[in-house]
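2 proteins. here.
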Amino acid sequence: MGRLQQLVMELRRRRVFRAAGIYVVAAWVVVQVASLIFPAIDVPDTAIRYVWLIALLLLPLAVVFSWFYEFTPTGLERTPPADATTEFNLSLRRLDYFIVGALAVVGVAIAWQLSANIRDVSLSPRVEFAAVEVDPYSIAVLPLANLSGDPEQLFFVSGMQDALISGLSRIRDLKVTSKTSTMRFSATTESLPNIASQLGVARLIEGSVFRVGDRVRISIQLVDATEDRHIWTDTFEDDIEDVLRLQSEVAQAIAEQVEVVVSDNVEASFEVVRTVNPAAYEAYLKGQFHVERYTPQDMMAAAQYYQQAVELDPDYALAYYGLSKLCGFQAQAGLISPEEAWDRCYPPIARALELNPDLPEAHMGYAAHMTWQRFNWEEGAKGFERAIELNPSYAEARMFYSHYLVLIGRAEESIEQMRLALELDPFNAFVRGLYGAQLMMIDDYQGCVDVIEEVMQTTPGFGFGYGVMWESYYALGLKDEAINAFVNHLRITLGNEAGALALEEAYVNGDYEAAVLHAADVIAEHSKTDRVAPTNIAGLYEQGGDIEKAMEWYEMAVRNHDPDAPYLGVMTATPEVQSHPRFIALLREMRLDYWADLYSKEQSTN
């Protein structure tokens, strides 16, 4: 009888196969239960892999245990050797207690260590909205009523609200909710305490604007939301050309009533105001509305309004910031080439900074350009930090700063900045959309899908998010959903109907890898005549398993300064790409050293 056959017979006699089978079934049940429980207690699906690891690593311990011991109706006993006599003592000896104890210690250590990883995953990714005490120096400016009776004045009235928020936001000790989140209460019948509770503020500003000819009158009421009572009211009036001075006076008066400390620098900024062309101001506001809807049609409309604002007022810094913001969004969506973005996006932001060096929006625009067009991390950080210094309640700056931080590997700081952005602007679709993208970047794929789906359901026509949903669905193994998300990304966000049709037609038979490879080939050919982001093509090749072609397109993205290239460290999910020497070299070239070091370390341990 051969040794292998003898070993198999001995394993059967000691009932090792039976014990291993029972263990496998029990482990499978545990994994299934965990997969059902984890979502209910807000533990991301990615933590399931640690449950599998625990089960896998404990299997050898179970096999060793079953070789030496077995459970009987009388308790735990030793397994007798094949040649044991009938008088063999089955009870445990001192050595057996030591062996059982050692196996238990090793098993507990393995389970404890990997359970710690589960806890880390469950605690880190999502921004939790725990109940916290409302800051007494928090305030929201509700949409102002238009008493002019002229619908054409709606954008002007909206601009007055925007200006009050901007003025108050410069006060460091005052937490001011962003305008976008207050707009849902423009025609509400909800009580003021209920509105304040939803916005997380202690005080509210109500008011109205009345414009007749060249005169503007604004009436303001300060409300203590905790007691639902008006604590101050006043009326201000001035000529239309001096509307910025009027807005500064109102902001100063509100700050005095709130009894918040206003620094000398902010006080001086209230005094230094210029006249404004009302038509240019309204054109800028219309551009802002369209650009954040993130569709090709809206960006075309935004371009017209921003250009109109600049032509009407060549010294209007905000209008130049709008042009730069639009340019960056067009580059990010793949509607213009990186070369165009390099030439077109910087001059307007430089002009905005020249016209107003203390404009928070201009510094944020500078930071965004340096980060996503020029890959200059140091200058990007300076811009974001200066924008937030000038306007601590600048939700959009904190949102983009959050993405910047995760790009360079500072995830914990990134989560905190996104938390603050969501507190300041909780109902802004674009902020929540980028929050979903951040969840994808920190591997909370189900969280990303949940957030983006909610945004798209509540904001019809919102074009941002399909690309990150594609990545998340793929990571979750939901290939039908991944195909549908990327089709929408091509068709709605990028306006690439040929690529969308190619992907739909190729997926008829349900072969995901073949479909994405076919779509990659079609879109790659299409890119010879129309603008397509190289990272999108690279991602398709990566998911289809053609790693060399994926690398070619990732390298092209870096060479061409594609604005999606900064996301290489956080967006690539396949080990074959992450461990590829050319990919690690790309990360080094971009000075994304955190990710290069991480993937190099993982490669050396595998």
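next one coming up
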Amino acid sequence: MRGASCTRRVAMLVIGVLVALPVAAQEETTIAKSGSTSVKTIVGRKTITITIETIRLDSSSSVFPKIEWGTNGVTIVHDMEIAVDGNSLAVPPSSFADLLDPRVLSVKSAKGGFVLTIVGADGAETYLVRVHFDASRVKRRTVYSLLDGEHVVEDTRYFKAKDL
């Protein structure tokens, strides 16, 4: 009887933890180590489609990035596409080109638009990147301190090109 009671308590604890998780954490999508990861979700009244193309590089490759941690291979983001209601946005390469070993992504609404969050690497190299966009363009990329996830350590703004 004692074992069954303990099992029930553990099951209730696990269910309680899962229910308490924030919705955003439940909507994270794992990014493929090589190939295409595509997410289509409705945020507010808009349909957001995110596609990330990744490539796995072996450490013997001539284009392997100069990194300080020892590894046999690394995943890089080769391309990223964002579409809002079927309209593709121009995604600046600087918003994704330096992301090594991306792990998960999520999309949520934010003031004036949407935010794509990408978490990558692990240990001391962990990063959190937010790409801010609206229905017409990518506006900003922020990188956050790995220590607390609240302090911006890098902030890139993208502006509309003037008509020529």
